[in-house]
Design goal:
Blueprint (H helix, E strand, L loop, with lengths): L4 H14 L2 H13 L2 H15 L3 H9 L3 H12 L20 H7 L1
């Protein structure tokens, strides 16, 4: 629980004004170019740099769930090596094409 909610709001407003508009645009541009795993990690690093209120601010700026950022922070703080393999398995193509399916249905 916050002892002084007004202090938190003022702190968040200060953080929001720290980044110039051009930097915010670059952050968003970079974020949208990354894959899901790297987005989570990037958002986590940016939130940690800001300290208190950073998760909230970055989640608003990058339009991502705060839980995603928290997951990224836990991943980065873990002792386990960071996974760099494919994030999702490649889909196997079936022998039946979509046009064959539509003809039988």
């Amino acid at each position: 629980m916050l002892d002084n909610p007004c202090r938190f709001i003022l702190s968040l407003e200060r953080i929001m004004n720290e980044y110039p508009a051009a930097i915010k645009r670059q952050m968003i541009r970079l974020y949208t170019s990354l894959n899901e795993r790297d987005r989570r990690r990037y958002a986590a690093v940016e939130a940690q740099k800001l300290g208190h209120g950073g998760i909230h601010y970055i989640s608003e700026l990058l339009k991502c769930d705060p839980k995603t950022i928290t997951h990224g922070i836990q991943e980065l703080e873990s002792e386990k090596p960071l996974d760099t393999e494919r994030q999702r398995k490649k889909r196997r193509r079936s022998k039946t094409s979509d046009s064959d399916i539509s003809r039988t249905g």
